[in-house]
Design a protein that fits this description.
The protein is an alpha/beta fold. It has 10 helices and 12 strands. The strands form 5 sheets. The protein has a 3-stranded parallel sheet with strand order 1-2-3, with helices on one face. Strands 4-7-10 form a 3-stranded antiparallel sheet. The chain has a two-stranded antiparallel sheet with strand order 5-6. The longest helix is centred in the N-terminal third of the chain and has 15 residues. It is globular, with a radius of gyration of 20 Å. The two termini are 24 Å apart. Bound molecules: glutamic acid (GLU). Glutamic acid binds next to loops.
Length: 282
């Protein structure tokens, strides 16, 4: 099977060395074996993404010496496709509208004393899952804003009990999607979630090897479940360690990690930046 990888940044800021590491990992994994490398802009969250950062990503990656195959897929122009995927899940009774605000959920969790924590935060206590159909219909008719949540128990009932994913170098790892609880797959401000869009696009674009930071490894448990529910093919996964600074802290924009642009303005060459990003030669 040909290797097809991708780098899928969200344009919420300028790329830093951690992104360069991720991009070079994906690019190298494809190029070493004559495979394809795709670039996808994950800008579905209009509250955080900005077009000028998309332009900067393309420019910085090209400066770094990366080339990609085919057109860049920009998620925000494909909303109807994600809506169609949501409609398919909804038609099978796997989604339900959730009218709770974040504050209401926090109150409910506080009243319950505690809630298990998942990779995306505290697990939703399931309040709106128990709403009667006529109450749901009335609240939707009254134009109350709502999110769409995956009914995890219903979804798990449709998946094999031994659901797993293949991690390169580790073999098959058992999935535990229940750790996400009733995950949000759409909300008013972000009409399709990262989890839905990323699995949709990896399937659509024929990605066979997903390379990304180990911080996203837990998300793979949910992604495998969505793949099974939607009948999408299963890629292999290679989660790479995160690049850290001299003191061992993970590089992040909020901690002042220098952007690729800043390094370039300081006079560093693409080869020097690739070395700093952990890849001596392209
Ligand atoms: N868009 C995601 C991010 O920038 C990465 C998606 C992925 O590689 O699965 O964190």
């Amino acid at each position: 099977m040909p290797v097809i990888t991708r780098f899928a940044p969200s344009p919420t800021g300028l790329l830093h060395l951690g992104h360069a590491h991720s991009a070079l990992a994906a690019w190298g994994a494809a190029r070493r074996v004559g495979g394809r490398f795709l670039l996808r802009i994950e800008d579905i969250d209009g509250t955080r993404c900005r077009p000028e950062f998309t332009a900067a990503i393309l420019e910085d990656l090209a400066w770094l010496g990366l080339d990609w195959d085919g057109d860049v897929r920009v998620q925000s122009v494909h909303m109807p496709e994600y809506r169609a995927a949501l409609a398919r899940l909804s038609a099978r009774g796997l989604l339900y509208p959730c009218f709770c605000t974040r504050a209401e959920i926090a109150r409910e969790i506080a009243a319950a004393g505690q809630a298990p924590h998942g990779p995306d935060g505290p697990l939703y206590p399931g309040t709106c899952r128990r709403l009667a159909p006529e109450i749901r219909a009335a609240r939707i008719a009254a134009a109350e804003p709502y999110a769409l949540r995956l009914d995890m128990a219903a979804a798990l009932a449709l998946a094999p009990a031994d659901l797993s994913f293949e991690e390169v170098g580790e073999g098959r790892l058992r999935c535990d999607p229940a750790q996400f609880g009733d995950a949000v797959l759409a909300r008013k401000e972000v009409p399709a979630s990262y989890h839905l869009c990323v699995t949709h696009d990896d399937a659509l674009q024929g990605v066979t090897l997903v390379t990304r930071g180990v911080d996203l490894k837990p998300a793979t448990h949910l992604h495998r479940l969505l793949q099974v529910l939607m009948g999408w093919p299963e890629p292999r996964y290679a989660h790479h360690p995160l690049l850290t600074d001299a003191s061992g802290r993970r590089l992040a924009k909020r901690d002042g990690a220098p952007s690729l642009r800043a390094l370039r303005e300081r006079g560093l060459s693409p080869a020097e930046v690739r070395t700093l990003a952990g890849f001596a030669a392209p």
